[in-house]
Amino acid sequence: MERLVYINGELLPKDKAVVSVFDHGLLYGDGIFEGIRVYNGTIFRLVEHTKRLFQSAASIRLNIGMTQDEINQAIQQTVEANGLADAYIRAIITRGNGNLGLNPNKCGQPQIIIIVDTVALYPPELYKSGLEAITAATVRNLPGALNPRIKSLNYLNNIMAKLEAIDAGVPESIMCNHLGFVAEASGENVFIVRDGAVYTPPVSAGILEGITRAEVMDICRRMGRTMLEADLSRHDLYIADECFLTGTAAEVIPVVKIDGRVLGAGRIGPITEEILTAFRQRTRG
Ligand code: PMP
């Protein structure tokens, strides 16, 4: 079945779904987005995702021109039109068509785009064996420059980190902030386990407040685990018993080696396994 893409209220075949070369999303990365999953025909945490979309919009002074309910409905409609029970949704709002100058006030209507497709970020084996990661030389964007809490269309910081992973021959890289504390992976949040307690960097470390991160923190607390937001150094990563990354596309993926240091027993740890199972239960249960 051909994919139908939502653009500004219309559902168009994907080769007809186009934006202008004068769109400030293309020219300047001036826009925002969300990645959302559909499991067994149900959109997972839709309201949380569109809430974050509107927060990103507010932060960059982008008027979406639709209410959150209207966006939710448009997403629902696009999912139904594509007939996929398991899918990945990409909702994108660009500043719209402007001229070659920076002034966003010269842009017309924002472009509202919703794409529904399949996703497979990592091969299934990696969820059993765990992946190897490096820490990146690339520093995570400073919150005072471009706050990582904004899920903006400018992902160059993340792409630089991803390139480092590719050069190192590993699937992921973890960025630190300007103070040397762990921030996040190129497109996922980071968790470690040590002596039975689970830790993740706080929002103040310069991260996206992941929806999966919130879900995993909730899972840990309900399991009765100590779950703390704390600044972590590279050293904390190296001496962790377990480590895993979380994200909408990645879900919960174990990390077993960082910068050549083998973590714990070098395979997926029991607490990661427990969290991964609980997460799958929540999404597919
Ligand atoms: N950090 C970054 C930089 C991301 O792009 C993402 C989403 N891919 C995440 C963390 C995870 O966020 P979520 O769980 O909401 O997908």
Give a description of the structure.
By secondary structure, this protein is α+β, with helices and mostly antiparallel strands. Helices cover 29% and strands 28% of the residues. Strands 7, 8, 9, 10, 11, 12, 13, 14 and 15 form a nine-stranded mixed beta sheet that branches. β11, α6 and β12 (227-229) form a beta-alpha-beta unit. The chain is globular. 4'-deoxy-4'-aminopyridoxal-5'-phosphate is lined by residues 35, 158, 184, 187-189, 208, 210-213, 246-249.
Secondary structure layout:
Elements: E1 4-7, E2 10-13, H1 24-28, E3 31-39, E4 42-43, H2 46-59, H3 68-82, E5 87-94, E6 111-117, H4 126-129, E7 131-139, H5 156-168, E8 172-176, E9 182-185, E10 189-194, E11 197-200, H6 211-222, E12 227-229, H7 234-238, E13 242-247, E14 251-258, E15 261-262, H8 270-284
Parallel strand pairs: 7-8, 7-14, 11-12
Antiparallel strand pairs: 1-2, 1-6, 3-4, 3-5, 5-6, 8-9, 10-11, 10-13, 13-14, 14-15
Bound molecules: 4'-deoxy-4'-aminopyridoxal-5'-phosphate.
Give a concise summary.
The chain has 285 residues and is an alpha+beta fold. The chain has helices at residues 24-28, 46-59, 68-82, 126-129, 156-168, 211-222, 234-238, 270-284; strands at 4-7, 10-13, 31-39, 42-43, 87-94, 111-117, 131-139, 172-176, 182-185, 189-194, 197-200, 227-229, 242-247, 251-258, 261-262. The strands form two sheets. Strands 7, 8, 9, 10, 11, 12, 13, 14 and 15 form a nine-stranded mixed β-sheet that branches.
